[in-house]
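User: I'm putting together a teaching handout on how sequence relates to shape, and I'd like one worked example. Could you take glutathione transferase from Eragrostis curvula, show the sequence you're using, and then write out its predicted structure as tokens right after it?

Assistant: Happy to. First the sequence, then the structure tokens directly below it.
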Amino acid sequence: MAPVKVFGPAMSTNVTRVLVCLEEVGAEYEVVHLDYQAKEHKSPPFGQIPAFQDGDVVLFESRAIARYVLRKYKSADADLLREGNLKEVAMVDVWTEVEAHQYYPAISPVVYECLINPIMRGVPTNQKAVDEALEKFRKVLDIYEARLSKSTYLAGDFLSFADLNHFTYTYYFMATPHAAVFDSYPHVKGWWERIMSRPYVKKLAANMLIKAP
């Protein structure tokens, strides 16, 4: 069986969202580099990154690609969507939505302002934007702390897509000057340390733009 292809740089936040799922299920994959200067990432059939190809199946949107991967390669040892259990899949869905609509909008401005803008774009950090984002992020972490005081992972006492979905932006956040925010949330910090302890996560982290402590 030919390996699936992921189009885009491995350091990209959305590309890594897909790669962390491919690694978790042990799938063979190839990362296809795109030339940004030639604007290949804006050319058909891509238009955005990541793009994903599995034979004649071509997909976009990192969360949709990740779900496809987790369904295709589901096994007794790698069942991260829990679709065979109505209650468990509901909790996976809930916390996946929380990441998309609450966690990501709060954490991403800090990552962009502290890392991506100054390092990749030469744009100085907007500290006001960072402060406003951190205020929102702490409120989100209050909710996560309450949840993770009752379960090992977000959807329950099992690792799921809901957890892996947080990897990239949290990893980059930990490389900003504001990583100590997590010290005020011991259950969240423990959850993050459990994710970071997985061998394939360490492997992917080696290809990231910034090396977090």
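A couple of points you could highlight for students: The mean pLDDT is 90. Residues 86-121 form the longest helix (36 residues).
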